[in-house]
Amino acid sequence: MISVLFVCLGNICRSPMAEALFRDMVNKENLNEKFLVDSAATSSWQIGLPPHKGTLDILKKYNISSKGLIGRSLIKEDFWKFDYIIGMDMSNIKNIYSITGKPNHPKIIRLLDLTKDRKDIPDPFFTGNFEETYSLVSTGCRALLKKICRKENI
């Protein structure tokens, strides 16, 4: 089983959006038996809470399930549990390095580094632009799935 963890600051906007979107992509490719997908926060502010209303609204708009999305914190042990740890911006990446104690490890990737954009995904909690976030997360998730399928020969 290939395990993927999406990480952002609060685990209420970007990372649960990425988790839901990636799961949807995996399911549409009939690969759900091959993947474990989760999301987490580098903070502890929103633990146990559902995603932000803006995230839930955008997922509903695109008919993507938000079932099972609950905020949790990234823990050191996640490094050993997941094959891919995907941060939404460089601040998240630095925090992931710090929490896991594994700086510059190749399994820790900024999502849009897999695309031609190679930039941070803005946090819609602050920008209010959930549509932009959805578009960027979607582009990144497609690139990630393509990379994993190529690497894992699936």
Query: How would you classify the helix and strand content by structural class?
Result: alpha/beta
Low-confidence segments = none
Q: What topology, given as strand order, has the largest sheet?
A: 2-1-3-4
First and last CA, distance: 12 Å
Pfam family, one: LMWPc
Domain Phosphotyrosine protein phosphatase I: 2-147
GO molecular function: protein tyrosine phosphatase activity
Catalytic activity: O-phospho-L-tyrosyl-[protein] + H2O = L-tyrosyl-[protein] + phosphate
Topology:
Blueprint: E1 2-8, H1 14-28, E2 35-41, H2 53-61, H3 78-81, E3 84-87, H4 90-100, E4 108-110, H5 124-127, H6 130-152
Parallel strand pairs: 1-2, 1-3, 3-4
Helix pairs in contact: 1-6
Describe the model.
- Helices cover 43% and strands 14% of the residues.
- It is of the alpha/beta class and 154 residues long.
- It has one domain (2-152): 3-Layer(aba) Sandwich (Rossmann fold), CATH 3.40.50.
- The chain has a four-stranded parallel β-sheet, with helices on both faces.
- Strand 3, helix 4 and strand 4 (108-110) form a beta-alpha-beta unit.
- Helix 1 packs across helix 6 (130-152).
- The longest helix has 23 residues, at 130-152.
- The termini are close together.
- 42% of the residues are buried.
- The model has no long low-confidence stretch (mean pLDDT 96).
- This is protein-tyrosine-phosphatase.
- One of its GO terms (molecular function) is protein tyrosine phosphatase activity.
In short:
Helices cover about 45% and strands about 15% of the residues.
